[in-house]
Design brief:
- With 187 residues, this protein is α+β, with helices and mostly antiparallel strands.
- The protein has a single domain, classed as tt1808, chain A, CATH 3.90.1570.10.
- Strands 3-6-7-8-9-10 form a 6-stranded mixed β-sheet, with helices on both faces.
- Strand 7, helix 3 and strand 8 form a beta-alpha-beta unit.
- The chain starts with 10 loop residues before the first helix and ends with a helix.
């Protein structure tokens, strides 16, 4: 269900709505439905989550989450991959991972889908950086490129196969080149 742009909701009203498939995000008073993930998107997302968690989870350094709703700074967004430093993962009263994350991820990764607006996705990455995220990636599977968004710096475009993708310090043991990343799309 995509909300009509003629009447905007408050964030509180949006958060009371039932979840949809695909999920909706709340951006600048509007409800915007994310596109349904397709093959390339799903493959890259799964490999990134597994790779990051293989390096960071056992040592309790960080945890990568797929499609996790993060509500902060007046928006409710769902990065394709949201990575949280271990000590920043919200917990419920019993010490389990909380269902509600009312904070920014430490690292946000977005994978552009064919029908998705690059401007909207970039806006979400910039919003995360504004509120404390230490790094953003925007992957374009069709162009086989990655736009890297460091905080308070100009974005970096990486397209060469041997270029090493920068990662946040908290997962510095996770190393990946552009070629390795998009090589995951081959069977």
């Amino acid at each position: 269900m995509v909300h009509s742009p003629t009447k905007s909701l408050t964030l509180a009203e949006f958060l009371k709505l039932p979840e949809t498939k695909p999920a909706c995000e709340y951006i600048n008073g509007q409800v915007i439905q994310k596109p349904m993930p397709q093959g390339k998107h799903s493959k890259l997302q799964g490999k990134l989550i597994t790779g990051i968690n293989d390096v960071a989870e056992a040592q309790k350094i960080a945890l990568a989450f797929p499609e996790l709703r993060c509500t902060f700074g007046g928006r409710s967004i769902i990065p394709d991959v949201a990575v949280f430093a271990w000590e920043r993962i919200p917990l419920d009263a019993s010490g389990d991972v909380a269902n509600v994350f009312e904070t920014h991820p430490d690292w946000t990764i977005e994978i552009l889908s064919p029908e998705q607006s690059q401007t909207k996705v970039t806006g979400n990455i910039l919003h995360c950086l504004k509120y404390g995220t230490s790094l953003g990636w925007l992957l374009d599977p069709d162009e086989k490129s990655v736009l890297v968004y460091p905080p308070k710096q100009q974005p970096i475009l990486l397209q060469e196969e041997d270029e090493i993708l920068p990662v946040p310090d908290l997962v510095k043991n996770f190393q990946l080149t552009v070629g390795q990343l998009f090589g995951w799309l081959k069977l």
